[in-house]
Amino acid sequence: MPQGFLWVCQNGELVPQREKRVIEVEVHQQLRAFLREQGELYWSHHLTMARLVARALRIGRSALIQTGAPSDLQGRYRLSYLVPLLMWHEPVILVVPEMIQQRILRVEIPRLRQWISYPKPIQTGDRWISPDYKGILITTPQAWLSDRLHNEGRFPPGIPTVIDGVDDLETWTRDRLTLQIESADWESLMLACPAHVDLIRDTRIQLIRAVFQHPANPYECYLFEQAERDILTELQQRLTESLPSNWAKFFEQFNQNDRLTWVTIARQAGQFSLHCAPIEVASSLAPIWSQQPTVLIGGALDLDSDAAIYRSSIGLNDDLTCLKFALDRQEDLVQLYQPEGIPLPNTPQFQPALLRELRSLLSVSFQGFSVILVGDTPLRSQVGSILAAEFGSRVQVERTCLEENGILVTGWEFWREHQSVLPAPQVLAIATLPIPSLEHPLVAGRVAHYKQHRQDWFRLYLLPEALGELQRAVSPVRESQGVIALLDSRVLHRSYGSQVLTALSPFARINYLDATLFSNVGDETNAI
Asked: Would you identify the CATH topology of the domain 334-526?
């Protein structure tokens, strides 16, 4: 057994005999020894984060940690919380997405157990094992949130909980709270209300006529208009039978002021789906945090270390420890190319100027993998077609099968979902900042809510969303110490430009394009 930790047999069980106050010291010693022995790629904050997690377990105080690194499959910071979880002698819950679970169970836990031989059981599941279980339970965000949001009683209160990847916590929560009415639900409603089959069928036909009159948009979703609400309200008032639970929940919420109701359309299939979700999730999440000490771990949640805007968005109070790790100025340095003179994105002159810059960039980066991020769907297709005509099959639009020197033209969502399985790009070109478009009906609906409450919708919603997306998108470029070409001139001319540059730090500015850029890091004296 490792030094400083004694296990004795009591009533047939191995019980740890030590004082809780030394857990931080033991975790520090064990992790440091493990990193030295394994030759682990060193992350300068491993030991600090491990001690903080150990302290949170010991004193039962919640913590919010910004690692600066994305919660991908590699998760270079993950050892920092796994070691204290394995060494802590009390039960604990670890909440991580299923893909990361498999990485932890198959790669990281076996390596650690060869070194840290504490006999702590580990199980996975969607509910607590038993009242006397003293091990680690690994579960998914969906299972844990569903239990906490709907009081299902599958996880007892008071058990310290570590949640990894809370960059997506708001999305996970809104998905759990979104109610949907699909085609099958209409059939269920007719079976439950046989006396009103004709009424239900007529209502559905009226809705089909109404929603398919919306002009096509790239998102194929539309906020509910008053006429469509009236159609559903009349149906609700005339149904007197007990309704299927999905319909009962939907009718209960769709007319509430703090809910967003919309329809998605599959035009070719002639189908539509109804959706209802809370505009904000802070009020739903706020009661959760008092039920157990929680360590929330994310990559880039907020520009500030106290993460005030992020905490407000998830209903997290001030009574917790907040820590933000800085990126390494050498290991995480990227080169930033930010040309002047490019027209603003909402002008006709922007596309020709964008294509000129992309041609120049690709002409000197032909040996490596390149990514071009274009948020606007029509513009993305046009850029892909034009570049494919010039650079051939190297250019692919939102595909993962690429040549070694391939050029991926993609939107932000596709890149976020697939960047962990694609090589680190040598160059990442950003056509426009990922500021959510007000043309998207759901974005417009949330902005209207902020305006109604006289809140700064850009600073509290659009800008944090953009900065978080931006930081996640550029993280693979830090691995290759490649070039980021920021081609959105709003960074130069808008007041929020300084915040965008802060989100991209550390970087070295470059003002020229040359093949040597892709083999040498820029002058570090210009690093910010």
From this structure: Rossmann fold (3.40.50)
The torsion angles phi and psi of 340, rounded to 5 degrees, stand at -95, 160
Nearest CA to 231 out of 202, 253, 263 is that of 202
Other CB atoms within 10 A of residue 158 CB = 11
DSSP for 274-321, written as a single string? EEEEES--HHHHGGGTTSS-EEEEESS--SSTT-HHHHHHTT--S-SE
The alpha carbon dihedral of 16, 22, 24, 28 has a sign of negative
Structure-block tokens of residue 356: 């000129």
Q: What would the two tokens of residue 64 be?
A: 């919010």
> Look-up: residue for tokens 């120049």?
360
Distance of CA 400 to the CA centre of its chain: 20
Instruction: Quote the tokens at residue 46.
Output: 């491993």
Cα–Cα distance, 258 to 449 (Å, whole number): 8
CA angle 328, 329, 331 (to 5 degrees): 60
Q: Do the Cβ atoms of 445 and 389 come closer than 8 Å?
A: no
Provide the CA 327 distance to its chain's centre, in angstroms.
19
Residues 313 and 87: beta-carbon distance below 8 Å: no
Report the candidate in 273, 280, 228 with the shortest Cα–Cα distance to residue 446.
Answer: 280
- Among 510, 497, 438, 493, residue whose Cα is nearest residue 470: 497
Q: Which tokens go with 25?
A: 């010291």
The tokens describing 78, both together, are: 């993950």
User: For 21, which DSSP code?
Assistant: G
Fold that domain 6-175+282-324 belongs to in CATH:
Rossmann fold (3.40.50)
Rounded Cα distance between 187 and 192, Å, is 9
Q: Is the pLDDT at 174 greater than 60, yes or no? A: yes
Question: Confidence band (pLDDT; 50, 70, 90) for 268?
Answer: confident
For the chain, domain boundaries: 6-175+282-324, 177-278, 334-526
Condensed to tens digits (0 to 9), the pLDDT of residues 441-469 reads 999 999 999 999 999 999 999 999 999 99
Phi-psi region of 204 (alpha: psi -120 to 50; beta: other; left: phi over 0): alpha
The set of residues, in sequence order, having a beta carbon less than 8 Å from that of 22 and lying 6+ positions away, is 4
**pLDDT per residue over 228-257, tens digit each?**
999 999 999 999 889 999 999 999 998 888
- Considering the entire predicted model, what is its pTM? 0.89
Answer yes or no: are the C-beta atoms of 312 and 282 closer than 8 Å.
yes
Q: Say yes or no: do domains 6-175+282-324 and 334-526 share a fold.
A: yes
